[in-house]
Amino acid sequence: MATILKPSATSEQQMASDENAMMNQIQATHSPDGRELDVRFFLHLIEDIIRCTIPNPAVVNSKSEDKTQPSLRDIPEPLAFLISKISCEMSCKSLTGADAHATTMGILSMLSFFKWDAKAVLFAAAFAINYGEFWLVAQFYAKNQLAMEIAFLRQMPDIKGNFRAFESQFNALNKLIQSTLVVIKCIVEFMELPSRYISEVTPVLSIAMNQYIPTATYWTIRSMVACISQITRLLGMTRNLISTPETWNWELSSLADMVRNIHDYLQRQLGLCYRHIDEKKHEEYFPMLVRLFETSHLDNMRILQALLYSRDDDMPLLVACSSGKRVHVDLLRRRNILLLISDLNLSEDELQIMNSIYKDSQGRPEILYEVLWLPILDGWNEEHIRTFDRMRQMMPWYTVHDPRLMEPAVTKYIKEVWHFGKKMILVVLDPQGNVVCRNARHMIWIWGNSAYPFTSTKEDALWKEETWKLELLVDAIHPKILDWIAQKEVICLYGGEDIEWIRKFTTTAKGVARTAGIGLNIVYVGKSYSKDKMRRINATIAEEALSYSLPDLTSFWYFWARLESMVYSKMQHGKTVENDLIMHEAMTILSFDNSDGGWALFSSGSAEMTKTKGDMILKSLTEFGTWEENAQVNGFVPTLNNQLHKLDTPQYSTLLTLPSIGKRLILPGIDGVVPEMVICVECGRPIEK
């Protein structure tokens, strides 16, 4: 059994020394003098010639199916002479059996004044002449007298008639040629890297230019020299001498493997170069965005194109969400735009409410705006894309075609300037692309399309017209509440998740209403979380006919989201619980949602309201006999309010954490920023974070 010996340290050093010596030889032939060459023109021509020489009997004597041909033009005479000279040099060397390395080095010396990409392309052009002429004769061998006689003089065998005998050789040739062309295109790509963002002194490109590309150029030339040598061996072969030259195929296959490995190295280094270029572009792009948003424009096109910048420049940037059809950004020209910015955790509740508001605007010609969804993630994978596509189909507006192609600087701008964190924001652009509101979510949740055109000025004007009343609290979440308000009926909103308390409260309230001779409409508004619990409680309330309830789980969410938005909106306008009644009342009800027990609010008409927590409201209703006469004279709701005061129940409950009473507040950050100080609605003291 043969023993496999590992190379010794001495042999490894010798190999490294040989590689360095060869690299020095290659570099010694390189003396570019600034000559320019349209490498893309020649590369296209070379590829077209190779494509027409497909070694397959089915296509011999047929035209190439590819109708796209390079636009031919005059080649400068010195350049044409050089290509012909190299072509002749290859033919002569292959006939004499010259050493492949010596031939390659000689050709590199002939091309010394050109850059690396031009060297590879010019040699490939010379190779294409020899290879193309060979196949031109081979394809017309049986049909053309001239081709047959030339083949006879050159002792070329009948390739078509004996193709199966030559098939393995031509397959090996074709694989090597294709692998070599791929490497040449990669070299060309390196030379076309934008000097604005990367130069030859940049480490990632310097390594490629000084090591990988010279080596790749050498081996592409040497591989094509080997191909011509194999073609020369075919010339002069007679039918009787046709055999299976395994050694030929082995040589070509070994070169093909080496060329593929070189290509892998080049591709990895090219990837690093592109990463460096992207980083430089990102560094430029962010300040460009800042300047762009500080500049006045005639329309919103420059702003939208900057936000939607994609490396896929040839296709429309947008897609209509519901149909998946790609559309041009021009559709949004001079429109009011709501940029819906979120991650992929946009809830079904948010999406359902936003869909409803958007569809309502479509039937109102006085309200003209479009919604554009910008999904923001730090890194995308295939699962994210599937989620994106699934969510997109639930939307009636527009989004980006492929969020992976968005410029990272845009994500940075959205996070750092517009303070996007995790919660959805709605940035409003006017028809000129100006940001007129950095987050209109709160005003849209509160007023819907009545807040159009969704500017901060409009939001401020709407607040000046508002007072704390039941219409503001409930809007049209329940179909009957607004009718009850108009009829000045007594309405009770209540919440909590203790079903026993709910049973006791609703039974007691109904009994008091019968005794007082009033119509009482009780509506369950649930809690802002625990959807599964809300589903079970809602089913029990309906089954036992305990009270009315909001229509669905999304309505529960929307009731509490609107209250939260009232608080946020007021904070954005500099209000506090000390100087703003609406903010004070909204925070009080939010505090009930964060408490462990139930709560209730009673109202008569629009403005008469009183509220408290579950134990106090039950105590007051249980003692109705003590204040029944006053209720007959002064009205049910005002008298209940006085009774709550008599029980020494705080008029307002706190939403914040106070060490002495152990209350708590769950207050998400406002657009990514948590307020430094919030005042307790009950005692007026600052709350610790």
How would you portray this structure in words?
The chain is of the alpha/beta class and 689 residues long. 53% of the residues lie in helices and 8% in strands. It contains 24 helices and twelve strands. The chain has helices spanning 9-28, 39-51, 77-96, 100-110, 116-139, 145-153, 163-191, 203-234, 246-293, 301-307, 348-362, 382-392, 408-416, 441-447, 456-465, 470-474, 481-486, 499-516, 531-543, 553-572, 581-593, 614-622, 628-634, 636-646; strands at 318-320, 326-327, 336-342, 369-375, 398-400, 425-429, 435-437, 490-495, 520-524, 548-549, 599-604, 608-613. The chain is elongated, with a radius of gyration of 40 Å.
Question: How would you describe this structure in keywords?
Answer:
689 residues, 24 helices, disordered N terminus
Brief write-up:
The chain is α/β, with parallel strands linked by helices. It has 24 helices and twelve strands.
CA distance, first residue to last residue: 78 Å
Give the CA-based shape.
elongated
Major sheet attributes? 7 strands, mixed
Total count of strands:
12
Question: What is the spatial order of strands in the main beta sheet?
Answer: 2-1-5-4-3-6-7
Based on secondary structure, the structural category is alpha/beta
- Calculate Rg over CA atoms: 40 Å
What percentage of residues falls in helices of 4 or more residues? 40-55%
Q: Average pLDDT across residues?
A: 83
Low-confidence segments, given as residue ranges, are 1-12, 56-68, 237-244, 649-663
- Helix count, DSSP H or I runs of 4 or more residues: 24
Strand content: 5-15%
